[in-house]
Design goal:
- The radius of gyration is 19 Å and the shape is globular.
- It has 9 helices and 18 strands.
- A hairpin with a 2-residue loop joins strand 2 and strand 3.
- With 355 residues, it is α+β, with helices and mostly antiparallel strands.
- It has a domain of 114 residues.
Length: 355
């Protein structure tokens, strides 16, 4: 198999890459699964499939850097405003961290913003507790970058896991999507803050150094920019990143930490996967580093990973409309969730998340 040959060729001592029983099989949707590629306590599997036709959208970070998109404060911790002013579609992924404003935020939903979208509300959670003013020379009214993604399964569950509907209907707010209006935002926000503190504490222990920034101790984004963490992260990235760019049919990946499946992300095309791959791997490596002191087990087999994906796809389905013509379908299975965002012409992102 071509994947195995390419992976084996990359397995030099300089890359510190261990290939643990590289295999291949069929995923529930008919695409091919290969791997695992293992570095220390992180195992990565690639999902191969046919790419959907059409132009690959910009990522949110690309669009922010180009000035094509603006993400603005609204005065509401749990809602921001996003506007695509450019001529290209822009992909926004749930878990993207936007830096700046009055507090750093993570975005709750995945969507594709059409060109010249107008102002669109988007659900968010604060990942920096306490600050509500400008930080340094940053603009407190808007966000400048989206270079990182949430590196914690627990934090993602706090943001995204479905909850029981309240006994009485939520109070409607102008411009607020039904998905946001139905959420128990106060409880979830506290869980997100707790998960941020837990992540920082685990990283402190694993690295033997303080990752909290003196500029803003509660900021997850600033903790992720810590120099010692970046050095530890680099060994994972150097060992694994090239394999995700070796074939033009890779459309997603699954990863496991300490032998336990964590999550998976799948995209309609290899082009979009490649744009997201660096950010995804960075977050996966940080999550592995944060759990480095926990008990380790062997990387799961291909069959185990296939079963995880298949089980998530058979979960009980519920659907909510979002903004920008996108709907969110959540499948709730005993051991995993599947979150699929789609618009009229097809799905735009699938996220599998272990419970």
């Amino acid at each position: 198999m071509r994947f195995c040959k390419l992976a084996a060729a990359a397995a030099s001592p300089l890359m510190l890459l261990a290939i643990a029983g590289v295999a291949s099989g069929q995923t529930p949707t008919g695409t091919r699964l290969s791997g695992p590629l293992v570095h220390e306590n992180l195992a990565v599997y690639f999902i191969h499939g046919k790419s959907a036709p059409g132009k690959v959208p910009l990522t949110l970070d690309e669009a922010l850097v180009r000035g094509a998109v603006q993400v603005r404060e609204t005065g509401d911790v749990n809602q921001l405003e996003i506007e695509n002013r450019g001529n290209d579609e822009v992909f926004v992924q749930s878990g993207d961290i936007v830096k700046g404003g009055r507090q750093d935020r993570t975005l709750m939903v995945s969507l594709v913003l059409p060109p010249h979208s107008g102002r669109v509300p988007i659900a968010s959670f604060c990942v920096e507790q306490g600050r509500w003013t400008a930080r340094g020379n940053e603009d407190p009214t808007r966000f400048a970058t989206a270079s990182a993604s949430v590196p914690s399964r627990e934090l993602k569950l706090s943001m995204k896991a479905p909850t029981q509907m309240p006994a009485s209907p939520p109070v409607a707010r102008p411009g607020v999507s039904p998905a946001l209006a139905s959420m128990d935002t106060g409880r979830r926000q506290q869980e997100v803050w707790d998960a941020v503190r837990d992540t920082q504490a685990r990283l402190n222990t694993s690295l033997g150094a303080q990752v909290r920034s003196t500029q803003s101790a509660s900021s997850l984004q600033l903790a992720l920019e810590n120099d010692k963490l970046a050095t530890a992260q680099r060994s994972y990235v150097d060992a694994i990143k090239a394999a995700g760019e070796a074939e033009d049919d890779i459309v997603g990946y699954v990863f496991a930490v300490n032998g336990t499946i964590n999550s998976a992300d799948v995209y309609p095309s290899n082009g979009l996967f490649r744009k997201m791959w660096g950010k995804l791997l960075d977050a996966s490596a940080i999550e592995a580093i944060s759990h480095k002191d926990a008990a380790h087990a062997d990387a799961p087999s291909i069959a185990t990973v296939q079963a995880f994906l298949a089980a998530a796809e058979t979960g009980k389905a519920s659907e909510k409309p979002l903004n920008a013509g996108v709907r969110l379908t959540t499948r709730d299975a005993p051991a995993a969730y599947l979150f699929e965002t789609a618009r009229a012409d097809g799905w735009v992102h699938r996220n599998y998340l272990a419970k």
